């Protein structure tokens, strides 16, 4: 069974234009990036998956359960969402309380909840800020708190809305590690991103949202190999991909390592 | 974000009238029926206000306002007509309760005045942009600090509502039940209060800094974002309104 099934999904906000115009998707455990220009409806889509918004028509099944037939709170044990803006998510006055809030609500026993809270804080590198007030921390740290508060719930599905916002290289590496680790554990990570280099290096599958539809859906390499189509969606392909294209390489490069390795090999071949 | 102000953004000659002229209209149209003491004049004032509501395209918005006040009106009738001692002529009876004619006449006078006040003020509220009200007052010498406070009052409630929705989304996203029967809702509401107050305090601090960063407390002469509303017929309309008032006073005295 698919972890998530989206069937003929239509959505518009009250008094708004139709934002999602018939989306059909199935998600297995492959880590998936959602990209698309500002206002394409990406955030709206993940809020629909989370059950915070309900389809105007069509259905969303999470582990076979229709989001229309279950409360958001009950669904929370299966699917976690890290909000685009951490300010929309954080409301407790200590980092520890904030992170353990979810595990308590979904009925994880106290010692287990404490353990997974501490583990999640170590995973995002905030183990030294356990007793700080989140309001006193920086934006990037608050984003990491909101990620930890979802990790601590150990949900099968993790939705991330622009996790790399305001993160330096250290933060991005850390998030990349988390996505890979979750994918390795057979858990589904779906993440919205604007950083194409990060998408290329991190995600197995990529979806492009445009004009209320999913216009591209394939493994990340295939998506970025269609440079023209990517540009038509007002997106810029990853920098290494562009570099490879400009140099006339036929291969689509997603990481600098791969690009360098191939270039060196080509140089050797040329010398001989 | 929804707005608590009842202002309806439309184009009509009523919308074009400036706030001060509307204030004079409120005063005159409330004063005349009271001075005249006549139900007919009161009804006439109501009729005119109704016509103006129609012209402004805000008649529909009036329905819930009047409907809400029906409860008040009904209790006025019952108390005035049935429970004030000293009346004699029974108009009709409902079981053991007698409704007296004098009481009903008195009640109708009160109701007409009440409706008149309601309609006259609702016309102004429905057709004047809150920020225009504040800017008019500031041009007439209200301090910009007070102006800011008044503007904030129009914003604070929708802001609270939207921050409550945000926090409740954050809570149910992480497994706290907020949907269901009344008990569940109340239980979910209580823990909301702390975060909503804190987030509005934090917001206030940030806003104060944002305002200062843009010289809120500077002493320089201020300019305004909206142009001052220049209502073409403001002088004749104001004169006519005041004349009406004078006439009704003279008519009453004679
Ligand atoms: N609560 C709301 N009510 C009405 N319209 C909304 C609401 N939230 C978002 N919108 C509108 O829906 C459209 C899509 O918004 P959404 O946040 O889903 O886009 P997005 O793809 O996440 O964009 P971004 O990359 O900028 O985050 C936007 O035009 C936005 O203004
Ligand atoms: Mg978004």
UniProtKB/TrEMBL annotation, chain A:
Q: State the GO CC annotations.
A: ATP-binding cassette (ABC) transporter complex
InterPro entries per record: AAA+_ATPase (IPR003593), ABC_transporter-like_ATP-bd (IPR003439), ABC_transpr_CbiO/EcfA_su (IPR015856), ECF_ABC_transporter_ATP-bd (IPR050095), P-loop_NTPase (IPR027417)
Keywords from the named record: ATP-binding, Cell membrane, Membrane, Nucleotide-binding, Translocase, Transport
What PROSITE patterns does the record point to? Answer: ABC_TRANSPORTER_2 (PS50893)
Instruction: Tell me where in this chain the ABC transporter domain is found.
Output: 4-236
Q: How does it sit in the membrane?
A: Peripheral membrane protein
Matches recorded under CDD domains = ABC_cobalt_CbiO_domain1 (cd03225)
Give one Pfam hit by family name.
ABC_tran
Gene Ontology MF term list: ATP binding; ATP hydrolysis activity; ATPase-coupled transmembrane transporter activity; cobalt ion transmembrane transporter activity
Where is it localised?
A: Cell membrane
Q: Can you tell me which family this protein belongs to? A: Belongs to the ABC transporter superfamily.
Output this protein's name.
ABC transporter ATP-binding protein
The organism is Sporolactobacillus shoreae
UniProtKB/TrEMBL annotation, chain B:
Which UniProt keyword terms apply here? Cell membrane, Membrane, Transmembrane, Transmembrane helix
Pfam families named among the record's database cross-references: CbiQ (PF02361)
Listed transmembrane segments: 23-50, 62-84, 104-126, 235-253
Subcellular location per UniProt equals: Membrane
Its membrane topology is listed as: Multi-pass membrane protein
Q: What is its main location?
A: membrane
Is-annotated flag, keyword Coiled coil?
A: no
Top-rank taxon? Bacteria
Q: Which GO terms describe its cellular component?
A: plasma membrane
- The keyword Transmembrane appears for this protein: yes
Name of this chain's protein: Energy-coupling factor transporter transmembrane protein EcfT
Q: Which organism is it from?
A: Sporolactobacillus shoreae
């Amino acid at each position: 069974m698919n972890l998530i099934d989206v069937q003929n999904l239509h959505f518009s906000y009250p008094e708004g234009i139709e934002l999602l115009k018939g989306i059909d998707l199935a998600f297995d455990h492959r880590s998936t990036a959602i990209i698309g220009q500002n206002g394409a409806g990406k955030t709206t889509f993940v809020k629909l998956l989370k059950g915070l918004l309900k389809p105007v028509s069509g259905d969303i099944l999470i582990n076979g359960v229709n989001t229309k037939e279950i409360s958001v709170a009950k669904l929370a044990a299966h699917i976690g969402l890290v909000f685009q803006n951490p300010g929309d998510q954080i409301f407790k006055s200590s980092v520890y309380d904030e992170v353990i809030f979810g595990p308590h609500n979904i009925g994880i026993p106290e010692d287990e909840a404490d353990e997974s809270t501490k583990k999640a804080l170590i995973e995002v590198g905030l183990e030294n800020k356990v007793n700080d007030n989140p309001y006193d921390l920086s934006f990037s740290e608050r984003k990491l708190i909101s990620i930890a508060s979802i990790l601590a719930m150990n949900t099968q599905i993790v939705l991330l809305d622009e996790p790399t916002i305001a993160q330096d290289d250290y933060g991005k590496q850390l998030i990349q590690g988390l996505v890979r680790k979750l994918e390795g554990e057979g858990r589904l990570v779906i993440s919205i991103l604007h950083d194409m280099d990060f998408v290329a290096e991190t995600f197995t599958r990529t979806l492009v949202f445009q004009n209320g539809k999913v216009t591209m859906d394939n493994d990340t390499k295939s998506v970025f190999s269609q440079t023209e189509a990517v540009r038509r969606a007002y997106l810029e392909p990853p920098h290494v991909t562009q570099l490879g294209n400009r140099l006339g390489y036929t291969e689509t490069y997603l990481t600098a390592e791969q690009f360098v390795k191939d270039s060196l090999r080509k140089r050797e071949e040329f010398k001989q | 974000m929804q707005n608590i102000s009842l202002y309806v953004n439309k184009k009509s000659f009523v919308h074009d009238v400036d706030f001060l002229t509307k204030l004079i209209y409120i005063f005159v149209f409330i004063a005349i029926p009271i001075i005249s003491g006549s139900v007919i004049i009161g009804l006439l004032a109501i009729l005119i206000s109704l016509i103006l509501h129609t012209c402004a395209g805000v008649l529909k918005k009036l329905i819930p306002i009047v409907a809400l006040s029906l409860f008040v009106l009904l209790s006025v009738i019952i108390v005035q007509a049935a429970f004030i001692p000293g009346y004699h002529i029974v108009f009709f009876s409902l079981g053991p309760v007698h409704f007296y004619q004098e009481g009903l006449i008195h009640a109708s006078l009160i109701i007409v005045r009440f409706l008149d006040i309601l309609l006259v003020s609702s016309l102004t509220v429905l057709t004047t942009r809150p920020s225009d009200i504040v800017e008019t007052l500031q041009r007439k010498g209200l301090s910009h600090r007070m102006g800011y406070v008044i503007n904030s009052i129009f914003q604070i409630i929708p802001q609270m509502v939207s921050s409550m929705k945000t926090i409740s989304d954050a809570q149910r996203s992480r497994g706290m039940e907020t949907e269901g029967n009344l008990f569940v809702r109340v239980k979910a509401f209580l823990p909301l209060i702390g975060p909503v107050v804190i987030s509005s305090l934090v917001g206030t601090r940030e806003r104060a800094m944002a305002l200062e960063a843009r010289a809120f407390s500077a002493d320089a002469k201020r300019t305004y974002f909206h142009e001052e509303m220049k209502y073409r017929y403001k002088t004749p309309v104001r004169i006519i309104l005041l004349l009406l008032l004078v006439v009704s006073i003279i008519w009453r005295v004679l």
